[in-house]
UniProtKB/TrEMBL annotation:
<keyword id="KW-0067">ATP-binding</keyword>
<dbReference type="InterPro" id="IPR003593">
    <property type="entry name" value="AAA+_ATPase"/>
</dbReference>
<keyword id="KW-0547">Nucleotide-binding</keyword>
<dbReference type="Pfam" id="PF00005">
    <property type="entry name" value="ABC_tran"/>
</dbReference>
<keyword id="KW-0813">Transport</keyword>
<dbReference type="GO" id="GO:0005524">
    <property type="term" value="F:ATP binding"/>
</dbReference>
<keyword id="KW-0472">Membrane</keyword>
<keyword id="KW-0677">Repeat</keyword>
<feature type="domain" description="ABC transporter">
    <location>
        <begin position="151"/>
        <end position="402"/>
    </location>
</feature>
<protein>
    <submittedName>
        <fullName>Ribose ABC transport system</fullName>
        <ecNumber>3.6.3.17</ecNumber>
    </submittedName>
</protein>
<keyword id="KW-1278">Translocase</keyword>
<keyword id="KW-0762">Sugar transport</keyword>
<dbReference type="GO" id="GO:0016887">
    <property type="term" value="F:ATP hydrolysis activity"/>
</dbReference>
<dbReference type="InterPro" id="IPR017871">
    <property type="entry name" value="ABC_transporter-like_CS"/>
</dbReference>
<dbReference type="InterPro" id="IPR027417">
    <property type="entry name" value="P-loop_NTPase"/>
</dbReference>
<keyword id="KW-0378">Hydrolase</keyword>
<keyword id="KW-1003">Cell membrane</keyword>
Length: 408
């Protein structure tokens, strides 16, 4: 369906003959897109848009109702800084018109920038309501998680081992001549602006997108990944940035989601499942990951975003990978669950797992990574040690103003 059809679904403009007035519908949809500084036509198919642009279309749809009260639940999850500022401009305009905005977010910066009052819930219970001007970030975080977070990004200082993964001159859709290495027990951060090719690079590496040239060597052996099944078979696991579309089956249970890609480990020679072994493994991961669920039979769609993400990561670990790719692992996750995910990542690192951390949050990349590469327009824009990397350095590389720093 087109953008206009999505925005006005069930509310189409009709002419005096009872037929859809396409001209008016596209014109009104284009006006909504212009309000959000979007430069594409409403005749474009939604399926052809990036996740961030799809989110902006959803916001345009909300604006089309002209409601007195608008609820926005994590509206900036997939947005760039520029798109976020466009949204904030619209929110301020709506506020000046007397509209009420309920703005749900885990991002501290946004709360302090756009909100007048803040209400905190924890584990389904009301905790407090305060004027934003009366709080600072540390106090708000303490209210949210019930404790102080002394170290938001708990980096594990441990020397990495031998080179596990070597990517040489990799090319594919949105990826051009990218070369990097990853060591055993190392966290490699991947930064860059939206559309720079971060996710595309990971999908080509994993086998979800076709590789046109280049080579991938794992533990000294060249591997070919023509499909995600090839990636899994070679010990490469990719946890998608869009867990609800690519990572999880929301109508299935926690147990079914967690064991879905690892059923071969619970299968008998005849093909039947060892249900007790499966249940024991799922139970162990639920306990290890501190997944808050009434039971493993609970539909995963009913869990919080943080617990869904833990299940997605646990599913990847069940396949016993050598390389774990985490694409936006804390998107839409509250600060308490973020802390738990960071601790799990450090535990995987301590166990010798090689981890690639893709994130649009620079503090997260800087705080958790041992080494960082930056993507720029499908190319490798920079490579930096933890000591060299700052937000200014990464941003310069992300916009193509800094050459790659060669490492020993």
């Amino acid at each position: 369906m087109t953008i206009a059809e999505n925005i006005f679904l069930g509310r189409e403009f009709v002419n005096r003959f009872g037929k859809i007035d396409w001209k008016q519908m596209y014109a009104e949809a284009d006006k909504l897109l212009a309000k959000l500084n979007l430069r594409f036509t409403s005749q474009k198919l939604v399926g052809d848009l990036s996740i961030g642009d799809q989110q902006m279309v959803e916001i345009a749809k909300v604006l089309s109702f002209e409601s007195k009260v608008i609820i926005m639940d994590e509206p900036t999850d997939a947005l760039t800084d520029t798109e976020t500022e466009s949204l904030f401009r619209v929110i301020r305009e709506l506020k000046s018109q007397g509209r009420g905005i309920v703005y749900i977010s885990h991002r501290m910066k946004e709360i302090f920038e756009i909100c007048d009052d803040v209400t905190v819930f924890r584990d389904g219970q009301f905790i407090a309501e305060r004027e934003v001007s009366s709080l600072d970030e540390d106090r708000l975080i303490e209210m949210m998680v019930g404790r102080k977070l002394e170290d938001q990004y708990p980096h594990l200082d441990k020397a990495p081992g031998a080179v596990r993964l070597k990517v040489d001159s990799l090319c594919g859709p949105g990826v051009d001549n990218v070369t990097f290495t990853l060591r055993q027990g190392e966290i490699l951060g991947v930064a860059g602006l939206m559309g720079a090719g971060r996710t595309e690079l990971m999908k080509v590496l994993y086998g979800a997108l076709p590789r046109s040239s280049g080579s991938v060597t794992l533990d000294g052996r060249e591997v070919v990944t023509r499909s995600p099944q090839d990636g899994l078979a070679n010990g490469i696991v990719y946890i998608s940035e869009d867990r609800k579309r690519d990572g999880l089956v929301l109508g299935m249970s926690v147990k079914e989601n967690m064991s879905l890609t690892a059923l071969r480990y619970f299968s008998r020679a005849g093909g039947s499942l060892k249900h007790k072994d499966e249940q024991q493994a799922v139970s162990d991961f639920i306990r290890l990951f501190n997944v808050k669920t009434p039971s493993m039979e609970q539909a995963i769609g009913l869990l919080s975003g943080g617990n869904q993400q833990k299940v997605a990561i646990a599913r990847g670990l069940m396949t016993r990978p050598k390389v774990l790719i985490l694409d936006e692992p804390t998107r839409g996750v509250d600060v308490g669950a973020k802390k738990e995910i960071y601790q799990l990542i450090n535990q995987f690192k301590a166990d010798g797992l090689s981890i690639i951390l893709v994130s649009s949050e620079m503090p997260e990349v800087l705080g958790m990574s041992d080494r960082i590469i930056v993507m720029h327009e499908g190319h490798l824009g920079g490579e930096f040690t933890r000591e060299q990397a700052t937000q200014e350095v990464l941003m310069a590389a992300a916009v193509g103003k800094l050459n790659r720093v060669n490492q020993e």
